[in-house]
Amino acid sequence: MKFHAAYQSWGRYFHYQHDIESPAWRQDTQFLEQTEPLLPYGLGRSYGDSCLNNNGTLISTEHLNRFIAFDGERGVLRCEAGVTLADILSVIVPRGWFIPVTPGTKYVTIAGAIANDVHGKNHNHVGTFGCHITQLELLRSSGERLICSCDENPELFAATIGGLGLTGFISWAEIQLIPIENAFIQEESIQFANLDECINLFEQSAADNQYTVAWIDCLASGTQLGRGIFTRGNHCTSHSAEKNHTLRKLRSVPFTFPPGCLNKLSVSVFNNLYFRKLGGRSKSSRIDYDHFFYPLDALLNWNRLYGPKGFIQYQCVLIDNAVDAMKELLTLIAKSGQPSPLNVLKEFGDIQSPGLLSFPRKGLTLALDFPNRGEATLKLCNELDVIVKNAGGALYPAKDSRMTAEMFALGYPQLDTFIPHIDPKFSSSFWRRVQPPAV
Ligand SMILES: Cc1cc2nc3c(=O)[nH]c(=O)nc-3n(C[C@H](O)[C@H](O)[C@H](O)COP(=O)(O)OP(=O)(O)OC[C@H]3O[C@@H](n4cnc5c(N)ncnc54)[C@H](O)[C@@H]3O)c2cc1C
């Protein structure tokens, strides 16, 4: 066992030791014999320890990157577990199809997106990623291969969607795509002065806009509490844009920044500049899907900006009196002075995912990136937990590095139904931290 820098999670908060197995074919089963516990690993774009398995084996899907079948009439794609959303988009967009749900990076694998049941900027219209998976193959440590869908092995399917890699190894998956006419999005960005204005924008935009999201300045307070930039968009029709787009130039953060570069002062300057980028107006433009969905992907390794201690992402969903609870949360963050530059607020709708441990549910969700300042950061997160608990909410395992077993059990009431589906040879560092104590 040793620390492998290439198999970390995105927050770079943990430095765990692993053995690594990388099966070359989806028919391989040899890795099931490796040192237990086992855990599948995609691209490590989860922020915390749900994709880590300290002192155990990670089963990397890097070589399981083949397309298996594509029905261009119906828009149904089947591919191996390690195929990334970037790979999929490069093939389907020129053919007039798009992924129904996409997270804020395209550098995730299809199996990783299933195991966290990821959401996008359109949850209120189409639900989660798992809602669009028509079937998948699950390899259990017994060597058994099971086709899982809403009709076949439905209980195991429900446990595997959002199942955090604990129910076995997804070897391939099939997804229903959505039709598009070209690669462009008609986007509108609007500056708002506070949280109430932001909520109004979500309400006004819900019916006519497929995608909605807001960036929040978490250091603003008083009458400016929750100020930020709201963005909404729809896929362009063929009359309004040419078909293809040119690939953008990528840049990379070449090294890990020294500690403390992202501090209250630098983040406050960034937030002020970003908030004012529209000059108080709104801006409408036609942009390609890469710029709309994946602005952060243009800067590879941006997580190195947070320094050698990494960062903690905190993503919660608030349900009861969500707007008031969100104000309470933002007030606490602004008061704490803990800087978080990338703060994303979205509205979840009520479309039910098949996944037993799916995170999204009707309410408001906020994702925050706090540079790791040790105890001070953990203390703030513990205080935020109280607000989330009082609002009947939950924390997102894909982003988490520190949630307690109590918080997990409160947020995931179907946990008891899920547990019997866990594969006996599979586990993760996250699971060992949050699993209910054995009775
Ligand atoms: C910039 C950025 C933006 C993001 N935006 C969003 C967002 O908007 N919405 C959102 O929901 N998430 C978002 N995320 C989180 C990310 O989408 C999820 O963490 C995603 O699941 C990561 O996929 P991965 O392929 O990197 O998987 P990993 O992080 O490597 O693994 C994720 C989980 O999948 C399991 N897994 C991987 N492969 C398999 C397999 N073959 N069989 C069974 N289980 C498997 C792992 O065990 C683990 O539990 C974002 C992440 C980043 C870095």
SSE topology:
Elements: E1 2-3, E2 17-21, E3 38-41, E4 56-60, E5 67-71, E6 76-80, H1 85-92, E7 97-98, H2 110-115, H3 123-126, E8 133-139, E9 145-148, H4 154-160, E10 169-176, E11 178-179, E12 184-192, H5 195-205, E13 211-216, E14 228-235, E15 251-252, H6 264-275, E16 282-288, H7 289-293, E17 299-300, E18 311-318, H8 322-336, E19 344-348, E20 363-371, H9 375-390, E21 394-395, H10 405-411, H11 415-418, H12 429-434
Parallel strand pairs: 2-4, 3-4, 15-17
Antiparallel strand pairs: 1-2, 5-6, 6-10, 7-11, 8-9, 8-10, 12-14, 12-16, 13-14, 13-19, 18-20, 18-21, 19-20
Helix pairs in contact: 8-9
The structure holds flavin-adenine dinucleotide (FAD).
Flavin-adenine dinucleotide binds at residues 10, 39-46, 50-51, 61, 81, 103-105, 108-109, 111-113, 115-116, 118-120, 164-165, 169-170, 296, 398.
Overall description:
The strands form five sheets. This protein has an eight-stranded antiparallel sheet with strand order 16-12-14-13-19-20-18-21. By secondary structure, it is an alpha+beta fold. Helix 8 packs antiparallel against helix 9. The protein is globular, with a radius of gyration of 21 Å. It has a domain of 223 residues: Vanillyl-alcohol Oxidase, Chain A, domain 3, CATH 3.40.462. 48% of the residues are buried. The chain has twelve helices and 21 strands. A hairpin with a 5-residue loop joins strand 8 and strand 9. It is 23% helix and 24% strand. Flavin-adenine dinucleotide binds next to strand 3, helix 2 and strand 10.
